[in-house]
What we know:
This protein is mainly alpha-helical. It has one domain. The protein contains five helices and no strands. It has helices at about 5-25, 35-55, 60-75, 85-110, 110-125. Helix 1 packs antiparallel against helix 2. The protein is elongated and about 60 Å long. It starts with a helix and ends with a helix. About 25% of the residues are buried.
Amino acid sequence: MNLKRVGCLLAWLVFAVIAYSTMSPLDLRPRIGFVHIERFGAFGLLGLLFAIAYPRRLGRVLVLVLATAVGFELLQLISPDRHARLVDLAVKLLGGALGVLGGWLLIRYRPLLLNLLGRINQNAKYGS
């Protein structure tokens, strides 16, 4: 299984987890820590994984991730125990955009990173 396939599978899985977390009742929402860090991290991971999964469609990936943030925030308006707030949306948008940027950087500089990791591994192997 190659990197794009794994990225695709994980991206849609993260999308589903975010959808569940956004629309589930507040007491069923998974919690890890500080909510803004959770939101930022979730959308950052979503953007990163979609950028890895679809490297030739980064413009569409960015639009998808940002539209997902807006759409999920607006969907909270129909849930009686949830609330949509602009600060939450801003955190999600920033996380998603930086995730896509991180994915682009990984794709762009992958050969350089692999070469660097190979050198580090070789130096560790021979103790130099």
